[in-house]
């Protein structure tokens, strides 16, 4: 889509569906609404929002800091969800119709005249932008983080890719594999003003270096020889350095996103190194997520939507067949996705995980490279199996 210069797709609905002739829908609506608003299940999203993760991940030694040279920092409180809420939160917002309102909006203030004249802009924040422009860049002050996010938004950059790319560039400059001739400004962990300027260079492609970096951290790392410390798992990493299962799931996952399957949650729950169990979890978790996504449900609410509740929801609007075949349909959607991905050129076996991910220490200790390799091999095998066309196999057999 990017190659074709397509900027967006707008879909406008102009019809309504009649409900089945019974009273089930209001009842189930009330049940779902109650779960989302009256129980503890969603309160963390409503209260501090996703930045509630910053302190626990830091305590667990699972927060990427300074281009993943560290997994925690003693001064992390400056960019915690609690700190943002205390000093920088203006208001909450919500997606249409959602009673949770997890979107947190802070502000940046800018002096535009000597006589104490200021303007302010509203800037939304979340765990991922905070990790990418905060801990990853060594910027540990919430207002400085909002300043960088504001530039990123105005430049139209992807915040996670932009932050991780500049973290790599900073370490590359420290190591002397590039110089200020490339970076134009002396990038330094913690220097938010420098990063604001660098984000602009990245967006504008000011010189050959920034043009290369804007194609992706790995493209620049290949060109300038810094692949070992490029924090790329298929695309620039997400804000979890929880361990082997997450690294495998993001590197090989369908969109290279932490949202395709909860590998980070698996890492945090167990110290067990059971390859089969971990890969089964990734496959099953993805099935649940693709089904919810197909129903346009928010993945934050996935804890609320048990299979039983989803079945009731579908029955209440007349989708009884679907309610009775959710497991099969989920598997089918998952297979279709992987079949498309693999048939358009993706080979999970070709993905490599940069050395930096094996150099870190998490709450479980150092990374077990053998376990990581076995996870990669097994998950690759399962992806290839999932992508096989069952109809073709049956045809071949007959
Ligand atoms: S739909 Fe999800 S992302 Fe949107 S406000 Fe509600 S909880 Fe947040």
H/E topology pattern: HHHHEEEHHHHHHHEEHHHHHHEEHH
Q: What share of the residues does DSSP label as strand, in percent?
A: 5-15%
Major pleated sheet = 3 strands, antiparallel
Through-space gap between termini: 40 Å
Rg computed from alpha carbons, rounded to a whole number of angstroms? 23 Å
Mean pLDDT: 94
Q: What does this protein structure show overall?
A:
The protein is built from 19 helices and seven strands. It has helices at residues 24-38, 43-47, 54-59, 81-88, 127-133, 142-155, 159-175, 180-183, 192-204, 208-213, 217-224, 244-252, 263-269, 275-294, 307-316, 320-323, 326-343, 369-387, 390-397, and strands at residues 89-93, 103-113, 117-125, 232-233, 235-236, 361-362, 365-366. The strands form three sheets. The chain has a three-stranded antiparallel beta sheet with strand order 1-2-3. A two-stranded antiparallel ribbon has the order 4-5. Helix 1 runs antiparallel to helix 15, helix 5 runs parallel beside helix 7 and helix 6 (142-155) packs parallel to helix 9 (192-204). The longest helix is centred in the last third of the chain and has 20 residues, at 275-294. The relative contact order is 0.10. It binds iron/sulfur cluster. The site of iron/sulfur cluster has 10 residues, from loops. Iron/sulfur cluster is lined by residues 45, 94-95, 98, 100-103, 298, 300.
């Amino acid at each position: 889509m990017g190659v074709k210069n397509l900027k967006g797709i707008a879909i406008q609905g102009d019809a309504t569906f009649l409900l089945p002739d019974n009273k089930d829908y209001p009842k189930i609506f009330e049940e779902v609404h109650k779960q989302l608003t009256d129980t503890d299940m969603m309160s963390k999203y409503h209260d501090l929002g996703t930045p509630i993760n910053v302190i626990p991940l830091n305590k667990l030694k699972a927060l990427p800091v300074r281009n993943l040279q560290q997994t925690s920092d003693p001064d992390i409180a400056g960019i915690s969800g609690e700190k943002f809420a205390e000093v920088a939160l203006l208001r909450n917002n919500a997606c249409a119709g959602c009673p949770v309102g997890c979107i947190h909006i802070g502000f940046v203030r800018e002096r535009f005249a000597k006589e104490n004249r200021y303007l302010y802009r509203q800037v939304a924040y979340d765990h991922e932008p905070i990790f990418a422009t905060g801990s990853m860049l060594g910027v540990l002050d919430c207002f400085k983080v909002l300043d960088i996010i504001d530039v990123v938004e105005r430049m139209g950059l992807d915040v996670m890719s932009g932050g991780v790319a500049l973290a790599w560039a900073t370490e590359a400059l420290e190591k002397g594999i590039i110089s200020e001739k490339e970076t134009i400004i002396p990038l330094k962990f913690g220097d938010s003003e420098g990063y604001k300027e660098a984000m602009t260079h990245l967006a504008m492609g000011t010189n050959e270096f920034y043009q290369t970096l804007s194609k992706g951290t790995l493209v620049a790392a290949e060109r300038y020889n810094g692949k070992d410390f490029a924090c790329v798992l298929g695309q620039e990493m997400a804000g979890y350095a929880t361990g082997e299962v997450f690294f495998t799931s993001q590197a090989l996952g369908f969109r290279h996103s932490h949202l395709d399957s909860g590998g980070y949650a698996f890492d945090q729950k167990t110290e067990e190194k059971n390859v089969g169990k971990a890969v089964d979890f990734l496959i099953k978790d993805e099935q649940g997520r693709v089904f919810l996504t197909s129903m346009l449900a928010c993945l934050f609410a996935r804890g609320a939507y048990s299979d039983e509740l989803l079945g009731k929801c579908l029955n209440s609007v007349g989708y009884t067949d679907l309610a009775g075949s959710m497991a099969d349909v989920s598997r089918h959607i998952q297979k279709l996705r992987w079949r498309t991905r693999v048939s358009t050129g993706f080979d999970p076996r070709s993905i490599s995980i940069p050395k930096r991910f094996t150099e870190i220490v998490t709450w479980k200790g150092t990374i077990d490279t053998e376990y990581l390799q076995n996870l990669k091999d097994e998950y690759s095998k399962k992806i290839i199996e999932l992508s096989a066309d069952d109809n073709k196999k049956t045809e071949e057999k007959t």
